[in-house]
Batch of 2 targets.
Target 1
Amino acid sequence: MRRAVAAVIRKDLRIELRTGEAVPAMLLFSVSTFVLFHFALDRASVEGELAAGVLWVTLLFAAVLGMSRLFVAEREQGGFDGFLLAPVDRTSLFVAKAAVLFAFLAAVELAAVPAFAILLLGPSPWPAAGELVLVLLLADLGIAVIGTLVGALGIQTRARELIVPIIALPLMIPLAIAAARATSPLFLEAGAEALPGRWLLVLGLYDLVFGLVAFAVFDFLLEE
Amino acid sequence: MFARGLKPLSIASVVLIVGAFALVFFYAPNDADQGFVQKIFYLHVPVAIVALLGFVAGGVFGIRYLRTGDRSHDLRSYVAIHISLILAVAALVTGSIWARAAWGQWWVWDEPTLVSFLIVFLLYACYQPLRFSIEDPERQARTAAVFAIVAGAFVPLNFMAVRLAESLVHPRVLSATGGSMPGEMRLTFLVALVGMAVLFVTLWKYELTSKQASMQLRALKRALADEDDSWVPTRRSAAPQQL
């Protein structure tokens, strides 16, 4: 299984490096959304809860873009058939795709969060950078799991671009609540406060529950 | 196949629902605080609880479909979620009316039960579009089952997250301590809850029977059409088209 997972990850990362289909689009989308928020809120800088909300809404919407692209090559160019013919565990496709989406999200955030800090965020994010990275990683894990599952659901339909966002966004609401609540004390004007532990716990629980559920049901989406 | 026990179930649901409303209007006391308006509680809460249980039941039938590959479980799951969606709209509307009467607002955001219910409703509202946009019946059933399972697991997690996020204003009817209802109210509520649950099962079986009958009718029409070589068009639908 490990070799199959590694092979799919390698293939996807190579495609992304050569074509640049997902990550640049997600990043551009994030930056445009920050600019949009600047004008829509009519503010030069945001802090606290507002900053956390703006950041997470933007990142979640950008993630939805990545989700609907995740399986397009598999569907259009017969990757599913090839994978089903190969004598490997089907779950390895799930693990590989979740890892790829996680990598995409991390890459986007590596540029989008600094852009957010420069364009919109009032207080400096540096004092709480470690905590912020922790929240981002936990949330990315949940987004990657949900995104892989919803992407695989959406690719079965004719209306992929419609189905993926309307299913993914309600599913990610608990994640958005926990991530935004966990981040808002880090962005306070008066200086970052301690990270609220219970929201990290909720994020972890979300990752765990949906990780297990997705692990259990993903195989059924692949049968032809 | 689905019609067994329909008659006693129908009678039981009529008796229970009528009985529950009789209890609501003639037996249960008026709330000391909110007065008569509070009686919408006996409709709102059972509808909401039964809708949530129906969503979870849809997920359970989804699991059974994936395990057995028996299409009748797909139909069961579909009908359970369909009726629960209708009940969910009723719960949102009655909840909104009650909120207006009790708190003076149609919608209250710092109200975890309301908000989580809305989120669950928004998620399940995607179930029909999802089914509708898949043509192959086999794939439609499988994808819908996966959705039903994931969404079924989402229901409790969502309630927990939203409840943690908000203050506690909504009365906890079924709390660990048993809530704080006096005996008459509790009895009335329990009868209303059981009545609503029985009504759900009855409607579910009626819909299953009706769906099965129209499937059989379609199969017969198709068999007849083969003879004189005309073509019977099938409508694309979110519902399962054959067992």
Note: Chain A has ten helices and no strands.
Target 2
Amino acid sequence: MRLPSKTPVIIIAALACLAVLFAFTAAHAKAMPESDEPLSMAMSGAFQPFSTTDDAGRLVGFDADIAREIARRLGRKPKLVQTYWAGIQAGLQSGKYNLICGSMAITDARLKTMHFTLPYYVSGAQVFAKKSVTNFAGIRIGVTEDSTYVKFIKAHPEKFPDAEVVSYGSEAEIVAAMNADKIEAFISDRIVGGFYIAKGSAGDIMPFGPLLYEEACGISARKDSAKLIHQVNDALFAMISDGAYAKIYAKWVGAEPDLDVLLASWGRFAKHIPPVETESAPTTAKAEFAEKASEMLPLLGKGAILTIELTLITAILALLTGSLIGVGAASRRAWIRSAANAYIWVVRGTPLLVQLFMSYFVLATIINRAVGVEMIGAFGAALIALIVNTTAYNAETLRGGINAVDKGQWDAAASLGMTRPRIMRRVILPQAFRDSLPSLGNNLVVLTKDTSLVGAITLIELTYSARNVVFQTGQAFLPFLLAAGFYLAIISVITISMKAWERHLQRSRQAVGRSI
Amino acid sequence: MNTQANIEIRVRGLEKTFGDLAVLKGVDFKVREHEVAALIGPSGSGKSTLLRCLNLLEFPDAGEISIKEKPVHYNSMTPGQLTQHRTRMGMVFQHFHLFPHRNALQNVIEGPLYVRGEKESAAVEKGKALLDQVGLHDKYEAWPSQLSGGQKQRVAIARALAMNPEVLLLDEITSALDVEMISGINDLLTDLAAKGMTMVVVTHDLAFARRVSDRIYFLDAGQVIESGAPEQLLDNPKQERTIEFLRAVGAQ
């Protein structure tokens, strides 16, 4: 049999590897004997005083202590997992942990995709605002994305007339945003806000208006874990009975728990406790998801447009700035060379995510305060960070290209009387650029995917919108797969365009009718 | 030979050191207008460095250079003066150094357009005429990668001539060529010399040096050992090292 050409063999081999990989991970996720494994429980670690981290990076707080106490009473080793709030449900559904013990309010929507224990504490949603705020007109309100607060605002827009809502990935970023003048108010848990006021960590704030609504927080599990829900309920009841619960509550909240209110809420939520015998799979979510499939694409498409905007603007500007710094890095003047190389060193040596936070929370804030108006918003801050980052990579690529150009080219151009700047512009850079184009294209592909990080500063780009779809549908697989498809399409267009450009610039390399 | 002709370039006591290596150790040299001077000598003798010092691709460490008896203050030149100095001398290199991203005509008009600021139409017309002159009337649009070595060197000569130089500096320009290309280039240069172009030629081709030059300088170890008219230096060398060199290259 004739062997097929190399390319299909490689593709088949890659697909086979992927299939094996999937099989392994799937088998691993399923084969989990329940009682020998540690009981793993997720929380954000960014929700003082319920979950936070200590100096050693260990998860501590009310949720953490409750989680450890429950595991102890179930005779299992506790394993606490810190995860981004925005992805915490997807993590549960995909089997990354057994329970979410992270101050999650019990809602009808969440009850569709998860089982909840009886409430383990009752609190409420409260607006906190800077003391200067007197009404909502023109006020920016920060909320944690996919929180019950967001849904409340959407359901009751009349309660927040003329206010702008800004979503953040976690409570910790909301605090940072308050301190950086990104928002003037935020909605949080009544107890959490009280904690901020006591510590002064979110600035000079106070509760604004009445409690929005009462909230009961429960511990949640996948729909196939009804038995575990019953075990945790038993443990909770035991903790309340023997006083362990009150001790933990007093330690973190600084007050005695109102057990009457808590137990009253149990009456309201008891009907949601699943029967032990039915270990039903979350079929309802799947059925709904199929209906929502057509709604997914427009949402992802909107995110894709933002991704394309960020990529294109950054690509064009970073090519110019990258050329400047690249020429600097190849300069014969030592101080210019050092300055350019220092820039490349610092920017390439720090993560883009940190640069995004610096740009958004620090640089933009300083500039906006100096100017007195909101000149640089999240989009501007994201562009600055992306351009600064990509510039460094482009500069390093071009530096290499410039140094690789034959020294004889300098001689030839200089002998014609061309000055150094003109030689660089007319002779060296065009050749360096032509030969660096494949690497510059690679930088562009990396940039396209790096834009997924701007979700961290409130911009709903492609990956962020995929996460939003995950929240809405409870499905983790297809939204991300569709997002991956969008990225692949964008990057394919970029790759094909760059190849065409390369061919155009390489036309001088053709050696037709070569007679040597 | 007109001995009354003005001196085009005069060099006295020229010294150049690269790191620890003294490449020129006090060289005296001159070339008159409309004459051709050839520099011969073993590899590493300093011929190319001398040539590169003339248009200041290398800056000498010491010594005098004058053009038409006007001293060149090479240690205190502005970029504008440096440009002016270099445009008076066209240079052609062993490895051509054509701009690979520009076609033949663009290579030729680069200097006139961007250094002399000539009008494009005029530069193109003159560029085409020069390419015609060097025998490339059908290669205006060709990329350097599409040309043979000999053709590339013709473009390089046209590029140098396009600046209307007073002197042409030729650095072993046939050394990288296939044998069958060499005579064509040599004929072209002989023709240019006959038309009165002042030239300084670094070469290993002694027959060509004899044919084209008015005076030959023999350099060894950074010094001019002997100089004279071609017949005198090649047929009746006086210095032992000249005799040894000529014997080694099979010229005697």
Note: DSSP finds nine helices and ten strands in chain B.
